[in-house]
Specification:
Structural class: alpha+beta
Oligomer: single chain
Number of strands: 20
Largest sheet: 3 strands, mixed
Radius of gyration: 21 Å
CATH class: Mainly Alpha
Strand content: 5-15%
Strand order of the largest sheet: 1-13-12
CATH architecture: Alpha/alpha barrel
Distance between the termini: 30 Å
CATH topology: Glycosyltransferase
CATH superfamily: Glycoside hydrolase 144 (GH144)
C-alpha cells in the first residue's frame, strides 16, 4: 500500500496540496490543480491510434439511416446484434465531431450522418416528454428489452446533440439540436425532495431509484438547470448528497460505485478551475483516480499482474457477464479482471500514469486485447480470459477523454452552449482558485 506522506507528495507534484491546519488530511473540496504533465510525441501517437480505432466503432456499428449506435459489438468477427443504446449514440455524435476535426472522415460525410441522426431523434424516435428509452432497435428505434425511459442515458445523448450544435456550422443541425434539447421536460422527472428519478416505464411509472448521491448525476442536473423551457429549480443542485470517503488519510467526495462516476460528467462539462459551494470536482476526480490506482496496485497480493504498469477496474464485462465493480472501498466480485476504460476514461486526470497502462496493455497482450475498434472491454491476465466485445459507452468515454487530454476540444466545444454555462452558473460554480472556504 502507500503512506499518506507518499500520496501527499504525489498530489503536491500535481499542483494539489493540503491546506494548513487540517491535521495533514487532504480534502478535495479544499484543493486545486490540474495535471502538469505535458504529452510527448509518443503519447500523441498512442492517443491518435486509439482515437482512430474507437471512432470506427461509432461509425461502422451504427445505422447510417437512424444514426443509432449499437450498445455493444464483437471486437472481431461478424456482428449481428441490432440493439442500440441512446447513451452510446450520444458518445457517437461527439465522436463524429472529433473525427471531423481530426480529418478521420470527409466533413460532408460527418455532417450528413449527424443530420440524419438528429432528424430521426426529433421526428421518429419514441420518447416521453423528451426523454428516450435506454435501449432501442438501431434500425427503427423501437423500445428493446422492456427498457426504461432513462434520465442519465438521455442526458448523455443530449450532450452529444449539443456538441454537434456547436461544432457544425449548419443551420438545420443547430435548429434540430435546439428543438431536441428544449423538448425535454426535466420537471416531469423530478420527484419529492427535488431529486430526479432514474427513469420511467409505461408498466410501472417512475423507477424507485433517485439521483440522490454523488455519481455521474452532475451532468443531468446541470443540463436540467440550464434548460430555457423546462428548467429544474436551482435548489435541486444542493438536494443530492456528497458523501466523503477516506482512504489512507486521503478524503474525497465519492460513492460506492465504479470509477466511471468520476469520469462521465467531466467528458463534456469543463470543471477545471471551477468550484461550487461544495467542492472542486476536477481536483476531486484527480484524487479519486489516484486513490483507485493505488487501491488496484494493492491488489497485487491477490492478483500479481496488478502494478504501476497495469491497473484499472470499473463497470465492465467479465467472464461471468456484466459486473459493477471497483474500489475503494472494494465492491463486486473482484477477480483480477482489468478494464481498459478505467485508465482510458481518466487520461485528463492522470495522463502519465494512464498512458503507461494503455501502452502496457497493448505491448504485453497485443491482439488479444487490441482490435479494429481499440481495446476489448475487459480481460483477465490471471485466467487468460479476454472479452469478445466492445461496449459503446466504455469505448466512448475513452475517446472523449483522450481528445480532452490532447486539445480540450470536447470541453471547449460543448461549453460554448449557453445552456451549459447557465446550468453551471445556477448551480453556483465560479471560476478561479477553488481552494476557498467551504
Amino acid at each position: 500500500m502507500f503512506s499518506r506522506r507518499q500520496l501527499l507528495a504525489f498530489l503536491v507534484h500535481l499542483g494539489i496540496g493540503a491546506l494548513p491546519g487540517r491535521a495533514n488530511r487532504l480534502w478535495a473540496a479544499d484543493v486545486k490543480g490540474e495535471p502538469q504533465y505535458q504529452l510527448t510525441a509518443s503519447d500523441e501517437k498512442v492517443l491518435e491510434e486509439l482515437e482512430r480505432a474507437i471512432f470506427l466503432y461509432f461509425w461502422e456499428q451504427a445505422s447510417p439511416h437512424t444514426g443509432l449506435v449499437k450498445d455493444r459489438a464483437k471486437a472481431k468477427g461478424i456482428e449481428t446484434r441490432d440493439v442500440a443504446s441512446i447513451a452510446a449514440t450520444g458518445f457517437g455524435l461527439t465522436a463524429i465531431c472529433i473525427a471531423d476535426k481530426r480529418g478521420f472522415i470527409p466533413s460532408a460525410h460527418a455532417r450528413a450522418r449527424v443530420l440524419a441522426t438528429l432528424q430521426f431523434l426529433w421526428k421518429r424516435l419514441p420518447h416521453q416528454r423528451g426523454f428516450f428509452y435506454h435501449f432501442v432497435n438501431m434500425h427503427n428505434g423501437e423500445r428493446a428489452w422492456q427498457s426504461e425511459v432513462s434520465s442519465i442515458d438521455t442526458t448523455i445523448l443530449l450532450c452529444g446533440v449539443l456538441t454537434c450544435r456547436q461544432h457544425f456550422d449548419d443551420l438545420e443541425i443547430k435548429h434540430l439540436a435546439k428543438q431536441i434539447y428544449e423538448r425535454v421536460d426535466w420537471r416531469w422527472m423530478l420527484t419529492a425532495g427535488n431529486l430526479l428519478s432514474h427513469g420511467w416505464t409505461p408498466e410501472g411509472n417512475f423507477l424507485k431509484s433517485r439521483w440522490d448521491s454523488y455519481s455521474e448525476l452532475m451532468m443531468i442536473y446541470l443540463l436540467g438547470l440550464g434548460s430555457p423551457t423546462h428548467p429544474l429549480p436551482a435548489e435541486t443542485w444542493d438536494a443530492w448528497k456528497r458523501p466523503v470517503f477516506e482512504y489512507e488519510g486521503v478524503r474525497f467526495i465519492g460513492s460506492r460505485a465504479p470509477l466511471f462516476v468520476h469520469q462521465y460528467s467531466h467528458a463534456w462539462f469543463d470543471f477545471r478551475n471551477q468550484r461550487d459551494g461544495h467542492a472542486a470536482y476536477f481536483a476531486n476526480s484527480v484524487i479519486a483516480t489516484e486513490v483507485h490506482r493505488r487501491f488496484c496496485i494493492g491488489l497485487a497480493q491477490y492478483f500479481p499482474h496488478f502494478s504501476e504498469d497495469l491497473w484499472g477496474i470499473t463497470a465492465s464485462d467479465s467472464a461471468r457477464g456484466y459486473v459493477v465493480w471497483g474500489g475503494p472501498p472494494p465492491m463486486g466480485p473482484l477477480d483480477g479482471t482489468v478494464v481498459p476504460c478505467a485508465a482510458g476514461g481518466s487520461i485528463p486526470f492522470l495522463p502519465q500514469q494512464t498512458l503507461r497502462v494503455l501502452r502496457t496493455m497493448r505491448e504485453r497482450f497485443g491482439d488479444k486485447v487490441w482490435s479494429r475498434y481499440g481495446f476489448v472491454d475487459a480481460f483477465n491476465p490471471k485466467t487468460k480470459w479476454f472479452g469478445p466485445d466492445i461496449v459503446g459507452i466504455n469505448a466512448g468515454i475513452t475517446l472523449l477523454m483522450a481528445e480532452n487530454a490532447r486539445t480540450q476540444f470536447v470541453w471547449n466545444t460543448f461549453m460554448k452552449n449557453e445552456e451549459a454555462q447557465r446550468g453551471m452558473d445556477r448551480a453556483g460554480f465560479r471560476p478561479g482558485d477553488p481552494a476557498g472556504t467551504r
